[in-house]
Amino acid sequence: MCVAVQFCTFRDMADSTVELINKEFIPLAANGWGFGAVLTARGEVVAPPLHSGDTGGPDGTNNPFAPKRLRAALEKFKQMAPEKRKTSIEELPNSWKGKAAEPNPPAEGLILKQYIRGFHRDADGKMHSDGQVPLHDSLWMTKAEWQSLVPEQPKVGDSRTVPAFLVSRIGVYHASVLGGANTVRISAAPKPTLTLTVEDSSPDQLRMRLQGSLQTSEYQGTPKSIGTMDSQVFGCLHYDVKKKTFSRFDLAVVGDVTGTSRPPPKGRTMVAVLLFQLSPGDTPWRRTPPWGRVVSRDYFKAGPYFD
What we know:
Elements (H helix, E strand, L loop, with lengths): L1 E4 L9 H10 L1 E4 L8 E2 L5 E3 L19 H12 L3 H4 L24 E12 L5 E3 L5 E7 L1 H5 L11 E3 L2 H10 L9 E4 L6 E9 L3 E15 L5 E16 L4 E14 L10 E11 L11 H5 L12
Parallel strand pairs: 1-2
Antiparallel strand pairs: 1-3, 3-4, 5-6, 5-7, 5-14, 8-10, 9-11, 10-11, 11-12, 12-13, 13-14
């Protein structure tokens, strides 16, 4: 059986519940649609959707993974006729037919694992958690894209503007801090200023520093911005000259967030942190496609990306 859920429903679950889910259910990621619905492989509803919102904790009545709810759905499923518990490709729901598997990373491409976290900064500069769950994503680059980051004749001290694809990839598809489904735009003023500087060059390794700034604004179905982030970008890139691949690709994007409808407590400011690190992509989890790649065909386009 399949159950449609959101990431918040996974918090604080007992090991026994995790074992039950892994054995009897297939979780489906949901962004509002069908939240909590339990379906057969034929698409028949075993348990109806719940209200997308506060789950009420691991045993809450609005939690799709509440043990009592899962067991009741499983019992109902087992009482169904055998032919209804199984299906063939021809019998799949029309909305499921023709769906391709999750997109794979580009051939010989680069994968960065992303971590997203919000903080509240007090008057003394001390950081406090914003109380939200850290989020994860992945950033993909094609072979041609990551190769464009490597200078043909590197000289220590040389600087150049970061290729447009990386500016738009980060700013448009990986800088949403107020809601994963929001639209993000990069501001033309102040103009993004991201540069790559060669810090060391040898026959074995090329070391580069990425640094700069950009401003992004988020939108939620209206022309008015729901928040703006003024970010500083810092990166450390190591390129293995002999293997012709990156051995290190660390990025940190740190930004002050203003103009939100839910400001931090009085006396504090909101800060968002986006961290990226090289991923080998050697497991299905590490090959999980970027959210922006799933929802947009333009993920690998380099712009225009300004307001």
